[in-house]
Amino acid sequence: MASAHSELVAVACNRTAHALDTTHCVAAFGAGNYVALYRPNNSVFATLRGHTDRVNCVRFVSEHVLVSGSADGTARVWTNDDGWRCTHVLEGHEGPIVALASLHVGSGMVTVTAATDGTMRVYEYETAGEEESVAAQQVISVGAHTALDVALAHVPGFSSESDAGSDAGSAIMLATGSTDGRVHIYTRHTGEFTRAVSLEGHEDWVTSVSFQRVSSSLANTSATSHWRSGDVVLASGSQDKHVRLWRIWRTQNTTVAGDADRRAAQALLDASAPGSELALRPREHEFTTQSGQFAAASDAVLEGHEAWVHSVSWGCGELVTAGADGVTLVWAGDEEGVWATRARLGADAGLLGARMGDVGVVAWSINGSLHAWTHEGDAWTPRAAPTGHFGAVRDACWSTDGEYLLTVSADQTARVWAHKNEWHEVARPQIHGYDMQCAAFVPASETESEKMLQYVAGAEEKVVRVFNATQAFASGNTASALTAAVPALGLTNKAVVASNETFPDDRYAVRRTHADIAQMDSTSNSVLLDAQLRHTLWPEADKLYGHPYEIYAIAASSSVVATSCRASSERHACIRLYWTHNWQPAGTLAAHLLTVTRMQFSPDEKYLLSASRDRSWALFERTQEDVPYKLVHHQIKAHARIVWDVAWSHDSMFFATASRDKSVKLWNVDALGDAPVTLAFPGPVTSVAFAHMLSEGRYVMAA
């Protein structure tokens, strides 16, 4: 029996501020409705399925426990016990979950989720032997504002080793960043969370909060020498472009309401007295809980970002921040008593977040791309990270030799993938202004010993575009351009050639006199970074016109390209043909009443098969006339619903049609009048394909 395994998982990170987290040598991020896991070797090794809507936030509780929150209003607890699996589903929210936090408490775990329904929910996870249970403990209303982030920590003075089994071990703090510009601190001893204090200072929405417990190694600089082991430091980031540090510590003295204000006023008078050497200190917010008395005060204000701060997080004893200015900053206290940036790591787009761990720093941007850096000595070195489309993948096709895979997406990009020890993205030949819809490689004919790699693509526009590979993909073919560029005020990928070279078609050539043209070797083992992939455009060779509406489907043979567009009438549901040797029109084919959803040439190029929204398929046969194909069979009402896809067997003897009616039908070319073989499926079938060879004498089909 035929078997299959995953070779490549290419997906972008969801574009939310809390979509990624790291632990040890593994990173997890939201990828559509899934949670993707990857290691520093640049490969996604697992995807966790369960959510029914976009995953907005991901948090590791430990190396083997992960919690994810989704726009479907649920959070899921995943455990790694010889494989990741969902062990609990946390329900109750009536809106998308936008942030969550989890913390081990005793032998259990506390999870807090924040959603757009104006509430935060607290869940208690307990274990008793082999029994596990999860219960919703509390609903916290945040009123008219929304909690944009939440963080949990044990109260100051808690020792994870000595207090884990005591009442002190259950005393925890909850911090929330809110749209009211405040950081709210809640405390809990053994009952429910109650609000203890609200920290003011930010002038805009507080987008991110993160706790860090002070250790002796963290309090070893002049900037942190006043921190005591056991204190808790809270970092908060805001849309006011600032990051603030708040120190929270346990106090010993007893106070009554108003004492803190009176002491602050007295300190102001003392400091303003002539000859006073007293320094002004930030106001101390004192609060009392069942666990004791505590104080919180502003400790530092960090300025370095030029736009909104989307993320703050502690890792390896350092603070990492990321903002809409496209910069990741690593902060540390210096010997002069101030906080300064130890590293400034840039990206080419606004960042939504960053995390530091054993794998280095991983950041994600507003276009879903991941950026990674490793720390080697005093230098930070960029390294490759998983890449993928951040919009729906609309089409995928193989080059004739199977060496390259081309994908196009609603994210307005076309991407080429190749196997270099592992599968990686090697080029981004087209970055378009419209959502991409379809694409097809143009195969070489039997008389062509070597053909330039070429593909045609359609987007939500009326034009089909033809692209030629650069020299890096053309096996040294000097007829190819070195690379391509989009001129200022231009919309077309222009070929780039050196000043001392000639190019066959100067209509599209842009000459470069500088020596900075870097020819990327597609056969090397190096993996390109996301920023480099943006400079791997392919030159546009031609444009094909004729359709009155947006392009919907494309098919290519060695001599003819077939295209279709969106259509609501028979007049516009035609198939247009173009010769590949000169890209001139070769005629039109009529059969369908509505949009032609898919076309495919048979492997021997004798037939062209098409399917349509009108629930029919049509078969066209090759001729020697001016129009290279003619209609030989039109199967009306072939399915009960829309026909989404068609596929040919490798020997051109059979073809399959896939439909929304939850079936795939197999047809014999030599007996089209016979009833087809029908395969039933549990849901609508959107895609179908045959293997390119027999397996143990049998046809293999995937749907």
Notable traits:
703 residues; mainly beta; five-stranded antiparallel β-sheet; four-stranded antiparallel β-sheet; 2 helices; 54 strands
Walkthrough of the structure:
By secondary structure, this protein is mainly beta. 3% of the residues lie in helices and 49% in strands. The protein contains two helices and 54 strands. A five-stranded antiparallel β-sheet has the order 17-18-19-21-20, with no helix packed on it. The two termini are 16 Å apart.
Quickly give the structural class.
Answer: mainly beta
Assembly state here? Answer: single chain
Strand elements, count: 54
The count of helical stretches stands at 2
Mean pLDDT: 86
Shape annotation: elongated
How would you characterize the largest beta sheet? Answer: 5 strands, antiparallel
Rg over CA atoms, rounded to whole Å, is 31 Å
Q: How do the strands of the widest beta sheet line up side by side?
A: 17-18-19-21-20
Helical coverage, percent range = under 10%
Short description:
The protein is an all-beta fold. The chain is built from two helices and 54 strands.
Protein topology:
Elements: E1 20-23, E2 26-31, E3 34-39, E4 43-49, E5 55-62, E6 65-70, E7 75-80, E8 84-90, E9 97-105, E10 108-115, E11 119-128, E12 131-141, E13 147-154, E14 172-178, E15 183-188, E16 194-199, E17 206-213, E18 232-238, E19 242-251, H1 259-272, E20 285-289, E21 292-303, E22 309-315, E23 318-323, E24 327-333, E25 339-346, E26 351-357, E27 360-365, E28 370-376, E29 379-383, E30 393-398, E31 404-409, E32 413-420, E33 422-431, E34 436-441, E35 454-459, E36 464-468, E37 483-485, E38 494-498, E39 509-512, H2 530-533, E40 540-544, E41 551-556, E42 560-565, E43 575-579, E44 585-589, E45 596-601, E46 607-612, E47 617-622, E48 629-635, E49 643-648, E50 654-659, E51 663-668, E52 677-680, E53 689-690, E54 701-702
Parallel strand pairs: 38-39
Antiparallel strand pairs: 1-2, 2-3, 3-4, 5-6, 6-7, 7-8, 9-10, 10-11, 11-12, 13-14, 14-15, 15-16, 17-18, 18-19, 19-21, 20-21, 22-23, 23-24, 24-25, 26-27, 27-28, 28-29, 30-31, 31-32, 32-33, 34-35, 35-36, 36-40, 37-38, 41-42, 42-43, 43-44, 45-46, 46-47, 47-48, 49-50, 50-51, 51-52, 53-54
